[in-house]
Amino acid sequence: MDKVVIKDFEVFANHGVFEEEKALGQKFVIDIELSLSTREAAITGDLKKSVHYGELAHKIEKLMKEDNYDLIETVAEKIAEFTLLEYPMVSFVKVRVKKPWAPIHRTLDTVYIEIERGWHYAYLSFGSNLGDKHKNIKDALELIDKSKYNKVLKVSSIIETEPWGYENQDNFLNGVCEVKTLMAPKELMVFLLDIEKELKRERLIKWGPRTLDLDVIYYDDLISEDDEIILPHPRMEEREFVLAPLNEIAPNKLHPIRKMRTFELLKNLKEI
Fold it and tell me: Which residues of the chain have pLDDT under 70?
């Protein structure tokens, strides 16, 4: 991945925990490294295919002067978020915010916070078997895409499936979508649970009827044992209602543990 770098960019702004810092202001020094492809811009000479670093510097300065924050951690987060949302061609960004006048009362060069943020790609499964099933799914996808931190890229066909795990209920409508997200895995899961609540899901019976079910199947190639979000989603390879729609939009997606592609997992399941 190519890089565009702005280094040692000085901005005078009013951030800090102490009131004097907010009232008097101080110097901050910004380093920002953008990861993107500059090839098309280089070949065509079209600056719109890259990032205008002069424009970005002015926008960062304006951003830093608009509000006052206690922590430079917040300043770095705001710069990273702004850059990724303002310039869609940027995949990842590294931001370093230096505070050379930090009130430590000791001799030092600077203190700084450094963060890396970027777009991630997740596959989500969705299902509904209560109420207006098609509307539940449509509303959920719209809510996901409406969030500035998530963009729906692909949506599979919706298939009707028999219930899994608890059979005394209506058939489900199921599908899978691919999203581009700035949220960390836990944040994404909480966001999806909030959508379920907004669309009136109640968790009364395990694997029971619900207006909406949203799950994270993959998040990049991340493998996680966290109880709050296990990745890839456990037992996905046993569920045709996940694999069939996933195979439609991502047949070559590689399961990071089983080292099999979607079409292979689906083929194996059907042969059982």
Answer: 164-169, 201-209
Q: Which amino acid is at 159?
A: I
H-helix segments, 182-261: 185-198, 240-249
- Output the six-digit token pair for 92: 């990842």
Return the residue matching tokens 């000085």.
Answer: 10
Which residues lie across from 224 on neighbouring strands? 231
β 213-219/92-98 pair status = unpaired
pTM: 0.90
Catalytic residues: 99
Q: Are 14 and 68 in contact (CB under 8 A)?
A: yes
Percent of the chain with pLDDT over 70: 94
> What does each C-alpha distance from 185 to 36, 111, 190 come to in angstroms?
23, 30, 9
* Cis before 256 (ω within 30): no
Q: Which residues contact 72 (CB under 8 A, 6 or more apart)?
A: 15, 28, 97, 99, 112, 113
